[in-house]
């Protein structure tokens, strides 16, 4: 368990995780975002990108030398061995970068925002699990609106994630994002005060 209070923030696609992390950041709290970290470990010059290029060749790069994510998705999506190889490469790099983010955090506590916190069994990295929750119908509508993806694509993503029940079972704290922005602000404020108290006891 980390010595600093680390809150693992998670939720399904379209649940409103970004809105919640933005509110915590407005209190001066450091956010370590797994999605940002995942992009950093494959940026030009990184070990991750070098390994990917040496396995799949230069065709995996865009003209500017950055990773062609769509191309990589194709390569991985149709070949289970490639997916296993990629996960074995990236997961340790991502975990290491997240650990480093936690250690370098200077706020009273920090938030580790990981969409697949429960699925990837990363709860050992955090002291508390905070789940942003809404109905599955809301997830579907919000994600379609935001991503412009088809209903089927969003449903497939939802099916690959932990169920709402599994997330809620793993939660120490829940933010109910079925209502208005105002109720979201109030809930984040309440969580923030609770975490400050817990951080003092850490």
Strand order of the largest sheet: 2-3-1-4-5
Number of strands: 5
DSSP strand (E) fraction? 5-15%
How does the helix and strand content classify structurally?
Answer: alpha/beta
Query: What's the N-to-C terminus distance?
Result: 11 Å
Rg of Cα set: 18 Å
Helix content: 40-55%
Poorly predicted residue ranges: none
Tally of contiguous helical segments: 9
Largest β sheet strand count, sense and barrel closure = 5 strands, parallel
Overall geometric form:
globular
Q: What's the rounded overall pLDDT mean?
A: 93
Please characterize this protein's 3D structure:
By secondary structure, this protein is an alpha/beta fold. It contains 9 helices and 5 strands. The chain has helices at residues 17-25, 34-40, 47-56, 69-77, 80-104, 136-147, 151-160, 164-170, 181-201, and strands at residues 6-10, 30-33, 110-113, 128-133, 173-176. It is globular.
Q: Could you provide a short overview of the structure?
A:
This protein is an alpha/beta fold. The protein contains 9 helices and 5 strands; from the N terminus they run E-H-E-H-H-H-H-E-E-H-H-H-E-H.
Descriptive tags:
11% strand, 9 helices, five-stranded parallel beta sheet, alpha/beta, 202 residues, 54% helix, 5 strands
Chain-wise SSE layout:
Blueprint: E1 6-10, H1 17-25, E2 30-33, H2 34-40, H3 47-56, H4 69-77, H5 80-104, E3 110-113, E4 128-133, H6 136-147, H7 151-160, H8 164-170, E5 173-176, H9 181-201
Parallel strand pairs: 1-3, 1-4, 2-3, 4-5
């Amino acid at each position: 368990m980390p010595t600093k209070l680390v809150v693992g923030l998670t939720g399904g696609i379209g649940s409103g995780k970004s809105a919640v992390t933005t509110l915590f950041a407005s209190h001066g709290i450091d956010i370590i975002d797994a999605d940002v970290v995942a992009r950093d470990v494959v940026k030009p010059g990184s070990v991750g990108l070098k390994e990917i290029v040496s396995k799949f060749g230069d065709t995996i790069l865009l003209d500017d030398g950055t990773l062609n994510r769509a191309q990589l998705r194709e390569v991985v999506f149709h070949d289970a061995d490639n997916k296993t190889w990629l996960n074995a490469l990236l997961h340790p790099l991502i975990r290491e970068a997240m650990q480093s983010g936690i250690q370098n955090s200077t706020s009273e506590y920090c938030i580790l925002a990981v969409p697949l916190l429960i699925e990837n069994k990363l709860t050992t990295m955090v002291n508390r699990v905070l789940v942003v929750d809404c109905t599955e119908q809301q997830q579907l509508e919000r994600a379609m609106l935001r991503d412009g993806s088809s209903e089927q694509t969003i449903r497939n993503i939802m099916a690959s994630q932990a169920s709402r029940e599994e997330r809620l079972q793993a939660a120490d704290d829940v933010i109910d994002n079925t209502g208005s922005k105002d109720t979201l602000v109030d809930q984040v404020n309440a969580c923030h005060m609770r975490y400050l108290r817990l951080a003092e006891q850490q």
